[in-house]
Write a structure and sequence with these properties.
four-stranded mixed beta sheet; globular; alpha+beta; single chain; three-stranded antiparallel beta sheet; 19 helices
């Protein structure tokens, strides 16, 4: 009897999987043939998801000429965008059909993950509206002295390290710099990770991003089978990390409200939002201030995004400049000229360093921190000029890495060329050809802050040091497979000379 029951279950599962895998064929959408159980994710733990999406994108674009294609996350059908006009429809023109990211969170089991990146619908829209004033250029200018103070400490620590031998693993060093910046700006705390690599905030930063193969698979599964994960109460954050950030936020809020301490940082602005106090002078009071859990979750995501994406962009940029000494000299000259013009590393000087900005943008093009961006279909959507309707609940994937390496938009895509981002070159490209921070209403809210700290960090490094490639760093770099953020295996070792 048990044999027949098992046979029935296996047979039903077989027919169910076959039906799932015929989803795109039945709708006349070009797709890549899947295999059980991974669908089109057969390379998990071997290749980065960005690379796998690039293979699907390149194959479908070359063979079909369609605006979208089909792929499978395990047994779940998903759309992959192949056309930039359709990408603009999804992210901008028809945003109301695609306003959710589809990223897993669980407010009850894992409140630290319920932040601006994962929130959906009206809750996301209301919170975004409340937080937008905290990222204006005026607020960034107020935080600039805090960033340069950390940058001076960064310079001193670099000089001490160079005196010991001159070869430094820059990825971790840059992460310590951005950890101290974001710790100061988001929490008003001296993290001291530049002086002490084992400082608590840096330790927590490493823990957030360290992923075991099983943890990575759990993250992928929670995105693919999100409803089941919520029912099971799957928790993605490390309990130690979550407790650390919850306590850090609670202690900071209690101290500031008790002593009436005011600082020009994110925490000040979040406390105002909590107490429904206008952020802008003469502005209206916020309706329904932020809860403690919301403040903790926003602080957490500010911290993660603030230290990791900027340090990643800077490390890849330094790698490329170490290989291309002529470009490094040109970038250094840009820093020197603006420093001489303004007399110091001022807010105005840094924002006039156009070539430095071009270098960062080219680094973000070649090595986008988030190689893919997901959107959920929030209501049935008829694809323009196609007899296809995308069903509610299905995923749409923008293959950022693939688009950034498409020779149609970037000739010789593996070449590092900052001049791709000159005003003349930029105006000739499609709006969606460069999307490291997304596009449209859900574009990264911290873009200004991330770019500002990256500019400051690179400006200080190039003004005072010269970088060449270490024999410990392979060229080309090998990208880690099981990392959410694009990262190189074995870190990034560079030889450094004090100027």
């Amino acid at each position: 009897m048990w044999f027949y029951l098992l046979l029935t279950v296996v047979t039903l599962t077989y027919f169910w999987v076959n039906r799932r895998f015929s989803y795109w064929k039945q709708r006349g959408v070009p797709y890549i043939e899947p295999t059980f159980p991974y669908g089109n994710l057969n390379g998990l733990n071997k290749y980065h998801f960005g690379k796998m999406a690039q293979e699907v994108y390149s194959t479908l674009k070359a063979t079909t000429g369609a605006k979208l294609g089909g792929m499978f996350f395990f047994v779940n059908p998903a759309v992959i965008i192949l056309d930039l006009d359709f990408a603009k429809d999804v992210f901008v023109k028809d945003f109301q059909y695609f306003h959710d990211r589809g990223v897993y969170s669980n407010e009850k089991a894992d409140p630290i993950t319920t932040h601006l990146v994962t929130m959906e619908g009206t809750k996301w829209k209301n919170l975004r509206t409340k937080l937008t004033p905290t990222f204006t250029s005026g607020k960034m200018k107020m935080m600039f002295p805090t960033i340069t103070a950390v940058a001076e400490e960064f310079r001193n620590c670099m000089e001490n390290e160079v005196a010991k031998g001159g070869e430094i693993e820059m990825k971790d060093f840059l992460a310590r710099f951005t950890t101290d910046v974001i710790g100061s700006c988001a929490f008003g705390l001296e993290c001291n990770s530049l002086k002490d690599p084992k400082a608590k905030f840096r330790e927590m930063g490493r823990k957030i991003l360290s992923t075991t193969p099983m943890g990575f698979l759990r993250r992928i599964l929670s995105i693919t089978f999100r409803d089941l994960a919520k029912v099971l109460g799957v928790r993605l954050s490390d309990p130690e990390v979550a407790n650390f950030f919850m306590n850090a936020v609670r202690d900071t809020i209690e101290y500031r409200e008790r002593t009436n301490v005011q600082r020009n940082d994110f925490m000040d602005l979040l406390i105002k939002l909590k107490n429904a106090v206008p952020i802008e002078e003469g502005g209206s009071s916020q309706q329904g201030g932020l809860t403690f859990n919301e403040i903790a979750a926003q602080s957490f995501v500010f911290f993660v995004a603030g230290f990791e994406t900027s340090s990643t962009a800077m490390s890849f940029c330094l790698y490329e400049l170490a290989i291309n000494q002529e470009l490094q000299d040109k970038a250094r000259q840009n820093v020197e000229e603006l420093f001489a013009k303004h007399g110091s590393m001022s807010y105005e000087a840094v924002h006039e360093m156009r070539y430095i900005e071009n270098c960062i943008n080219e680094s973000l093009r070649k090595y986008p921190p988030l190689p893919n961006i997901l959107r959920n279909v929030t209501k049935p959507y008829h694809v323009p000029d196609m007899n296809v309707t995308l069903e509610q609940g299905y995923r749409v994937l923008l293959p950022v890495y693939a688009i950034h390496h498409d020779s149609q938009y970037y000739p010789e895509p593996e070449k590092f060329d900052p001049d791709r981002f000159s005003p003349e070159a930029t105006t000739k490209r499609h709006q969606m050809a460069f999307v490291p921070f997304g596009e449209g209403p859900r574009m990264c809210i911290g873009l200004r802050f991330g770019m500002m700290q990256a500019r400051v960090g690179l400006a200080y490094l190039l003004k005072y040091f010269r970088f060449t490639l270490s024999s410990k760093t392979p060229s080309p770099l090998k990208i880690m497979a099981n990392s959410t953020i694009l990262a190189s295996e074995g870190g990034l070792w560079l030889n450094i000379e004090k100027l």
